[in-house]
Amino acid sequence: MELFFNRFPLFLDGALTTLLITVLGSLLAFVLAMVVGILGTTRNAAARAVATAYTEAFRGVAALVLLFWFAYAIPQITAYELSPMFAGILALGLNVGAYGAEVVRAAINAVPRAQTEATIALNMSWPRRMWLVLLPQAWAQMLPTFGNLVIELMKASAIVSLINVVDLTHVADELRQTTGETIPAFVSALVMYFIIAQVLIFGMRMLERQANRRLGRAPAGGGLLSLIRPPTPGTKVGAAK
């Protein structure tokens, strides 16, 4: 691991770039997922058609193809050129947002029908019904899958190295070429990716705990911390079933 400690500033810069792309891509994906997912639950046929078209189009196209399209094809067919980092954020956000939209739609539809009927009986408008009753209950169901999507987006962000964004993968590959030390370079990148993933998992678990607490549900564990948390009071470790 001598290479890692000697080139730590380079790995740190690459990790920060990876984290920035992950955060911004996740924010874009989240906004798209919420908007498109909610549209997919409405009774308006045109709104549902738009939601379905977006979801099927961007779920069915590889993020790598989108990345190359935004980075190389857009400048040839328009007068605009996207920066490599923005092209990466856009490609990842659009791709993961399509998966997230289905998560939102399914979570809202999973709210018991009686809840919707109660809001109708109280003469609530559709926005109030969605904001005050349906989304708070669906939110807790969305978060575990959203957490998985954020981790997938973080790992998929490695493709931006192919358009010369100096992320963690790009740093590792450059060191491999300049030093010839393939294993140390990519083991170092693996460790940094793992650390970023654990930070993201911890953040998502905190959001899950908060959402479940508001609904009076028991918080769910996860990540490495779930392996070392103390047993539930009243249980015996290693007791026979």
How is the secondary structure organized here?
Blueprint: H1 2-6, H2 8-39, H3 45-59, H4 63-77, H5 84-109, H6 113-121, H7 126-156, H8 168-179, H9 182-214
Helix pairs in contact: 2-5, 2-7, 2-8, 2-9, 3-5, 4-5, 5-7, 7-9, 8-9
Features:
241 residues, mainly alpha, 74% helix, 0% strand, flat, disordered C terminus
Q: Can you tell me about this structure?
A:
The protein has 241 residues and is an all-alpha fold. The chain is built from 9 helices and no strands. The model is unreliable at 237-241 (pLDDT under 50). Its main location: membrane. It is a multi-pass membrane protein. Keywords: Amino-acid transport, Cell membrane, Membrane, Transmembrane, Transmembrane helix, Transport.
Q: Quick one: how many beta strands?
A: 0
Order of helices and strands: HHHHHHHHH
Measured as a percent range, the helix fraction is: over 70%
Shape type:
flat
Oligomer: single chain
Distance between the termini: 45 Å
Overall residue-averaged pLDDT value:
87
Beta-strand content: under 5%
* Low-pLDDT sequence parts: 237-241
**Radius of gyration over alpha carbons?**
22 Å
Structural class: mainly alpha
